[in-house]
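$ fold --in a.seq
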Amino acid sequence: MRCGVQLPGYIYFLTAKDQERPPAPVMDAVVDRWFEIHAPDRPLTVDYWHTPSYQLFLESLTEWAADIRQKFSHDIGLDDVEYLILRMAAGLKETDGESRGTPNSARFLLRSSSTS
């Protein structure tokens, strides 16, 4: 469904327009698949609105942002971590968890998510 593919980006840009609050990360099937592979101990429910899953999603993004911030001394937001997940999901090889062109912070996120 084409609309479903574009909707998360649309929601992100609607919430990103508000300068007083950070944009709301979008938890969708792509994110769910990434979590199933790389953070299986953090199961999400995305078939319907599930507040505990969204809370776990936000807690995970917050934790991984802090890990990346500490490791790379780089200010990174939850939306940046979400972007890294989506970028990895777009080109991920399930066999080794690596993809060409994946930034170091994204590779670190893979290791961080599997050890948390």
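$ fold --in b.seq
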Amino acid sequence: MIGSRQPTGGRMGREQIRGIVAALGGLLNVLRKAAPEGEAEVYHELGPILIYDHET
């Protein structure tokens, strides 16, 4: 489920959202138990982009 892409402007259904939430919950457990090097590798592979808006 993670890694699948929706067409631009497409909406996800409830089951798709539930699947992603379940997968992310498993990922969070892995990150909590990971050594710093392993955690860094996971984040590198995910390639997250974080945006901080200081006005909100």
